[in-house]
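Input structure tokens:
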């Protein structure tokens, strides 16, 4: 069995997570893999040699973030290109992170290195013209949304749909009583979970607004409990400092494990736009979608955005099934009033639950990582090892 040398690039927490599961699946099917690349702690834990921690050093939001971090981005890009020239991996595997990865794909293609992209850039949402660039530089596009397949086939791109990898990550294995007891929550009282994001900048910008929203809602419903879902990329102390700064007059529980169990059994959630909103759809958790960027990024983004929504459940559904509180609409009062509307109107609440169930059904079935791994090995012309040989390796 020859060794496959694969170079991974993931620039965000979700990409690091899904990339780590892809690497594990690849090694289950073909154990002789040398993995090197850019990513975060989860890819490193899966056995990848981490050349640069993108999550810690380049968790960038918007145009202004790119400008501020340009020197670091350029340095990492140049060093990565140099590595590809010197070591010539069997393939480069790019995971989302379009701005950086599209340029790197072009460099790899010029070097004759096969380019495999896992989790397509959201070309259907913005920068639609990028599909022409991708068609020239990508050997295999592995997509997670069913509607993406036709977009790439129309441009002659080799594409395979594997379903959403979140199905392989999300596990709900506790009752409400069990998980509430574990975190000292009262199962007889309502619970709202706050999901402020996985980047430090998001948490510092959004959590204060969300905590003020919690105080507003507590004025309407004093028996309500609140819990902040802490991403693995965020320090506990950072959240505690924001809670202290906002002088919240009631206990706010920080959840650092069993996250899906807590979110599944909460009555409602406030969720930063992104992967976390699809997690909410998959577990059937009614929620509000929130987001805010600086004015320059918002103005530029509005010119580039080609669809009506930014929330992934809404995009998959093709309609506004979950309210989006964006920019100036993302306020403490709007959080409180929108939440009260759903929790005080059972018909509207159940309507959202049904719509989220439809989104979950549209996303496919479990097994995305294994399907993606099989497609990659086939593209590279190597055969997956029989289970009995894999077990001996």
């Amino acid at each position: 069995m020859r060794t496959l040398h694969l170079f991974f690039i993931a620039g965000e927490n979700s990409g690091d997570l899904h990339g780590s599961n892809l690497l594990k699946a690849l090694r289950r099917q073909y154990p002789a893999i040398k993995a090197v690349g850019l990513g975060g702690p989860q890819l490193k834990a899966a056995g990848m040699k981490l050349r640069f921690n993108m999550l810690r050093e380049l968790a960038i939001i918007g145009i202004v973030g790119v400008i501020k971090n340009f020197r670091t981005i350029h340095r990492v890009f140049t060093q990565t290109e140099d590595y590809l020239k010197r070591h010539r991996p069997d393939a480069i595997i790019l995971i989302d992170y379009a701005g950086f990865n599209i340029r790197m794909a072009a460099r790899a293609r010029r070097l004759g290195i096969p380019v495999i992209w896992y989790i397509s850039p959201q070309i259907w949402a913005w920068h639609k013209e990028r599909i022409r660039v991708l068609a020239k530089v990508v050997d295999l596009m592995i997509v997670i949304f069913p509607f993406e397949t036709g977009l790439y086939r129309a441009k002659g791109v080799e594409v395979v749909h594997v379903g959403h990898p979140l199905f392989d990550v999300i596990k709900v294995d506790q009752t409400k009583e069990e998980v509430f007891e574990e975190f000292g929550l009262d199962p007889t009282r309502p619970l709202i979970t706050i999901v402020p994001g996985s980047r430090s900048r998001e948490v510092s910008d959004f959590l204060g607004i969300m905590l003020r929203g919690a105080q507003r809602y507590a004025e309407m419903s004093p028996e309500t409990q609140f819990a902040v879902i802490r991403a693995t990329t965020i320090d506990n102390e950072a959240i505690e400092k924001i809670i202290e700064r906002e002088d919240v007059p009631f206990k706010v529980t920080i959840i650092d494990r069993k996250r899906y169990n807590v979110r599944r059994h909460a009555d409602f959630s406030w969720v930063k736009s992104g992967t976390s909103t699809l997690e909410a759809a998959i577990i059937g958790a009614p929620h509000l979608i929130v987001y805010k960027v600086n004015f320059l990024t918002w103005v530029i983004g509005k010119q580039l955005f080609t669809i009506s929504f930014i929330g992934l459940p809404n995009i998959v559904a093709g309609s506004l099934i979950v309210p989006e509180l964006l920019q100036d609409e993302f306020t403490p009062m709007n959080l409180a009033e929108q939440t009260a509307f759903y929790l005080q109107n059972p018909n509207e609440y159940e309507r959202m639950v049904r719509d989220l169930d439809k989104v979950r059904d549209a996303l496919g079935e479990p097994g995305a990582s294994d399907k993606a791994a099989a497609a990659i090995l086939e593209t590279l012309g190597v055969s997956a090892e029989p289970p009995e040989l894999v077990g001996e390796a």
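DSSP finds 19 helices and 13 strands in the chain. Residues 387-393 have pLDDT under 50 and may be disordered.
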